[in-house]
Design brief:
This protein has 236 residues and is mostly helical. It contains 13 helices and no strands. The chain starts with a helix and ends in a 13-residue tail after the last helix.
């Protein structure tokens, strides 16, 4: 069984300066080795659901290790206090939206933390909260979600998205897309909101990435026959 030292040494050996440069252009912070996700998965294969190791990796504060921790952790063993600790350490979107957003959504407390985090004044915490909601649409049966609550959230997004902090705007846009794609009771309503919201402007740093134009993205999802589809996991 790998130790934290084993994994950190392997991550360091897999690091690539060109990947570091790319990640930093997206907002990543040091310490970071710049490990490609495909290379991380070799470590994950040996340590899948090694929850103790995942927690220790996240605590290193190394961006690659934190992302790997999100893939490795056992969500069923997470607590609200631990999820809160994780989100407070998330310092860029690959950690807040993905590593934390995935684990939180697949934990027993996804809805609880999503409700709490979206009210935060801290950009990365609110960002994670909206990402968790998007993941819940992908994971949970429609009947397990409160339609009235979600409708209120959709109204909030429509009214606030253009005034929200930078990365929160991106996550809110993703929330509308995920709702239309994966939550059938409000799919048409979410599409109508996407059309009224229009183009969402987000500073994505020195990258060629673009913010998805929600109406077009939703149409493509529906055309592919994925409307209302669900997943067993959102981690990848």
């Amino acid at each position: 069984m790998d130790t934290v030292k084993d994994v950190m040494n392997e991550l360091a050996s897999l690091g690539d300066e060109s990947v570091v440069k790319m990640f930093k252009s997206h907002g990543a912070h040091e310490p970071i080795y710049g490990v490609r996700v495909g290379d991380m998965k070799k470590i994950l294969k040996r340590n899948k659901n090694n929850h103790t190791l995942a927690l220790a990796l996240y605590e290193t504060g190394n961006s690659d290790a934190m992302y790997l921790a999100g893939l490795m952790a056992d969500p069923s063993l997470m607590t609200i206090s631990l999820l809160d600790a994780w989100v407070k350490r998330a310092n860029w979107y690959m950690i807040s939206e993905y590593a934390v957003g995935w684990v939180a959504a697949e934990s027993p407390y996804g809805m609880d933390v999503a409700r709490k985090w979206i009210t935060s004044k801290h950009e990365m915490i609110a960002d994670a909260g909206w990402a968790v909601w998007s993941n819940l649409f992908r994971l949970m049966p429609d009947e397990k979600l409160d339609k009235a609550e979600i409708e209120n959230l959709l109204d909030h997004v429509e009214n606030e998205i253009h005034h929200a902090p930078n990365r929160v705007r991106y996550a809110m846009n993703g929330f509308v897309i995920a709702m239309a794609a994966h939550y059938e009771p409000l799919a048409d309503q979410a599409f109508a909101v996407a059309e009224r919201i229009g183009k969402v402007r987000v500073n994505l740093g020195e990258t060629a990435c673009k913010v998805p134009f929600a109406p077009d993205y939703i149409k493509k999802t529906w055309a592919a026959g994925k409307r209302g589809s669900k997943r067993k996991t959102v981690r990848c």
